Amino acid sequence: MAELSQRPASPVSRGLKFLKTPWAVIAGVFVGVAILDPGNVLATAQFAVRALAHTAPYILFAVLLLSYLKATGAETMVARAFHGRETRMIFLAALFGGLAPFCSCEVIPFIAGLLALGAPLSAVMAFWLSSPLIDPPTLLITAGALGWPFAIAKAVAAVALGLFGGFAIKALMAKGAFASPLRAYRRSGCCGSGPRLDGKPQWRFWTEAPRRTQFKAEFGHNALFLFKWLALAYTLEAVLVRYVPAALIAGIVGGDGIVPIATAALIGMPAYLNGYVAPPLLAGLIDQGMSVGAAMAFMIAGSVSSIPAMAAVWSLVKPRVFAVYLGLGVTGAILSGLVYQSI
């Protein structure tokens, strides 16, 4: 029976699996350019390669940092933010949400464990809202594509959104809302059980063979992950800059005021890809006339409403809490865009 269950995948299934990868999209883009505009294939490839090379130092540092945090077990420190007074927990949860190197499937068992230990929904919401917006690799990739002022502003907006959501939930709960906010949670095998809540980081990870092995595995996995998604991002940016009229972008999300910013936030919620693809695409859109406030709103709204981020929330709370999460996210995105536009 075991031999039958481990039968190799057929060529058709492998082909279908490849079609779902960034490599297939990249190949499809260049095939399309070659057919429709063969004279610009080389120029499009050169644009993407130059942009990727410019970001390469940020990618390398991000991969090293993320691998180090994983190998040391530094993400276990986040659990300490959920102890003590509720106001303190909200502040620390909003801050650590932008620092923890969690993938979205790790967030689910981690938060489930915290909720089981009695962590308040307000602090959890602060973590949920800030966590998908920024982490060390995303900060570096954003800086490489859009500059440090934008990256730092996004990090500040992430913490501010977490605080906004955390205190909003606290105020609503004080009035009797969300008396029973949680679904029944069933553990899955996606990413194990998540980090231990009582674990301690081992900063000198190289002294332990299992941690050295984990560092190497994380480095290889994250390097490939970031490279393929950024290769896709810069390929799409090259096509965007070359073939999408600047007047069209400027007419939709250009200029001052709340309308283009709100429009960008509402477009960003269903259209967003992930935190690694978005910065290069937004760089191209800004070059085409998108306002910086609209870019900020697009990125924040899209991060909050990305499929992994929403799945982490939907799996643990009831629909009314999930709806409030999305409402806080889009409201915070618009406010962040307005503030960034004004400065």
TrEMBL record:
TM helices/strands, residue ranges: 21-41, 47-69, 90-119, 139-169, 219-241, 247-273, 294-316, 322-340
Pfam families per UniProt: ArsP_1
GO cellular component, one term: plasma membrane
Nucleus in keyword set: no
Alphabetical UniProt keywords: Cell membrane, Membrane, Transmembrane, Transmembrane helix
Record keyword Magnesium present: no
Signal peptide interval: none
Membrane topology: Multi-pass membrane protein
Recorded superkingdom: Bacteria
Subcellular location as annotated: Cell membrane
Family: Belongs to the UPF0718 family.
Protein name: Permease
Biological source species: Sedimentitalea nanhaiensis
